[in-house]
Every structure is written in C-alpha cells, then in structure tokens.
Design brief:
alpha+beta; Cathepsin B, Chain A; 11-stranded mixed β-sheet; two-stranded antiparallel sheet; 17% strand; globular
Length: 369
C-alpha cells in the first residue's frame, strides 16, 4: 500500500460538497455528501483510511451527524489479530501494514469503533505526522523472534512485548470515552451514534478463475484475514458500482495505482494506449484476467469513490477520494479515474447490500432490506 508524508491542513468547510464543479476540466454528474479528505501520512494503512471515510459517509447517508472516526483504532486491533495469526502460522504469514475493507468491519464486530478525538493513534511527539516504518519493523521482529525461539513450547510473553510496541506507538485504546458530553464504549458509540451494521456490507470482484455469483477467497497478499468476495461478471460489477452511486451510496474501492497513467498530482487515472489496443483484440473481462494473472494489475491501494463526472468530450470518470491530504493536488485530494481504467484496474470494492441491483443480489443469494 502506498505511503506519503503530507501536510495536515484541513479544509475550512466541514463537509466537502460539489467542489469539483468549480474546475473547468470536468462536469459533475452526481456527488455524494461526504467528509473532509483524510491523510494517512507515512503509513501503509490506506485500507483503514479509505474505509473510515466510507463509514463516515455511510453515517451521513443514514441521517447521522458528521463524524470524524479514528482510522488508527482499526489499525491497532488489526495488528493484534495479525500478530496472533503470524505466530499460529509459524511465521508463514503476511505481517505487514496492508489490509482490506473487510478488516475494518471485522474490528467493528469484535471491538466497536470510536471518534478520532478519543483515539488519535499517536503517542509520540516526533515526528508530528503518522510514521509506521519503525512500528512495522518492531512488531515483525517480536513476532518472528517468538516463532524462531519456540523449540518445544511457545513462550506466551511475546504477546506482552507485541502489544507493548503498539501501545507505545499508537496508545492504548480506551474502554470508555466522552463524546459531546456523554460517556460511551466503542460498542455503544457505534450503536447510538454511527449506526453501522457490518453485516450490511459486502465486497465484489470479477475474475474468470473462480465461478461467478459465488463467494470466493480472493488471492491477494493483503487479504490476510481471508475475507470473501462475491465474484460477478464485469458487466454486473460495473452495474453495482453505477447503481450505488446513482442512488446515494458511495463505494469503498480497492485497485491498482501503479500504472504510469495513474497520476495523483495531475488528478487523473487513464489506461495506457497500449492497454486500450490490447482490449480491442479481446474484451474487458479477458483482459482483466490477463492483467491479474501476470501481476500488471496489483492490489496497491484503497480509496473512496463518491461520485461521477464527465470531461469536455463526455467521457465518464469516477470521482475518487484519496487519503493523502486535501492539498496534494489541484482537485483537493480527489482523483478522476476513467471508466476504462476502473473496468480493468478495480480489484474489488465494498458497498451496502441495498445498493446492489435486485437481480444481481438474487443471483448472489444476498438478502436485501
């Protein structure tokens, strides 16, 4: 997952609405009410920042007040589970910063959630920004030493050292906290303030090496928790995304940002001409599979799609909220991904189950409200 050190300047407006209409390059078709752009800084935790943004936007859709949730709360507990899994797999496990959207939902199920004000996830004063480079090295060292040092019996004290590192870097998540004058637990805060039911959210992908309309364990290095995705044909994948955005549901997007024509500073993502030529000789579905199989489409980054727009030529783009700060590019930290780019470079995405067209939900066996 990409890491960037970016400034922490926040936009003066508390909720970012329709800002892209001001730029002459694009005309907004629709944009969903959302919260300010976040900044993951020097961490590889885009999965948490993107999904936190997504949850804040879902809360707004559900009629809740504007929230600023803590991404590092999800990071803390994900690392706890990763550490246990690393040791239980005798070190044959991906203990890294990366993750998936469902990792946030798994934390909510087990531990709840909380606002940024209750858990900023930063115990040290220097540097002034989030930097997890030493944190990752230290956690991996403790877990590896525990495995390497285990001869007949694993020494259980490794857990104390492992949690101690997390507590030193991120802080101990409070069991109770005060928010707007009232005391909450992480569980009661979600129930009373956020209103997020993790079971209402599902993930989709589209690859030929698995059966369609079935739940699959997608082979991604960062899918460490073996979350399952509904595998659907590409046409249905795009129908789900478009139906969601047209009906006020945003999309938690996971995909490839390693392409030369993916340019955050310029604010656009386009397929290369050579890719377009190759697609003309096959089709999008087959080319998706080809790029996944030969590693030219990789699981690099999670972002948050909040709307659609078109350029001067009428070409469709997806307005995508990144987590590298609001002052990183000329679009306030957003990126315009072309429709062709999204078709090929989307690895997976998460949506609310009610955002799915009924016929596709029925084929997948998903019960809607």
């Amino acid at each position: 997952m990409k890491k960037y050190v970016l400034s922490s300047v926040m936009m003066l407006l508390s909720v970012q609405l329709f800002f892209a209409q001001k730029h002459p390059d694009f005309t907004v078709i629709n944009q969903i009410k959302t919260t300010p752009v976040k900044n993951q800084q020097l961490t590889g935790t885009c999965w948490s920042f993107a999904t936190t943004s997504y949850l804040e936007t879902e809360a707004l859709r559900l009629g809740k007040s504007e929230l600023n949730l803590s991404p590092m709360y999800f990071v803390y507990y994900a690392y706890i589970d990763k550490g246990y899994d690393y040791v239980r797999h005798h070190g044959n496990f991906n203990l890294s910063e990366g993750g998936q959207a469902h990792d946030v939902m798994n934390v909510i199920k087990k531990y709840g959630l909380m606002p940024e004000s209750a858990y900023p996830g930063k115990e040290y004063d220097y540097p002034s920004y989030h930097d997890h480079s030493e944190l990752v090295k230290d956690l991996h060292s403790v877990a590896k030493n525990a495995v390497d040092g285990a001869k007949e019996v694993l020494n259980p004290t490794w857990v104390l050292s492992y949690k101690g590192i997390l507590n030193a870097f991120l802080g101990v998540p409070p069991k109770e906290f005060v928010y707007e004058g009232k005391t909450y637990t992480p569980e009661s805060f979600n129930k009373e303030i956020t209103g997020i039911n993790p079971d209402d959210y599902v993930e989709f992908t589209s690859y030929n090496h698995h059966p369609f309309y079935e739940l699959i364990d997608l082979e991604l290095p960062d899918n460490w928790s073996h979350g399952r995705y509904y595998n659907v044909p590409l046409d249905d994948l795009m129908k789900i995304m478009n139906n969601a955005l047209e009906n006020g549901y945003s999309v938690d997007w996971d995909g490839d940002v390693s392409e030369k024509n993916w340019d955050n500073e310029k604010g656009t993502a386009e397929l290369r001409k050579i890719d377009i030529t190759r697609i003309e000789n096959t089709d999008f579905q087959k080319y998706r599979q080809r790029t996944f199989d030969n590693f030219t489409t990789t699981d690099d980054h999670l972002m948050h799609i909040t709307g659609t727009a078109k350029n001067k030529d009428g070409k469709l783009y997806y307005m995508t909220k990144n987590s590298w700060g609001s002052d990183y590019n000329k679009y306030g930290g957003y990126l315009y991904m072309s429709e062709d780019y999204v078709k090929i470079k989307t690895v997976a995405f998460m949506v609310h189950k009610d955002a799915i067209p009924e016929d596709i939900a029925e084929k997948c066996g998903i019960k809607q409200q």
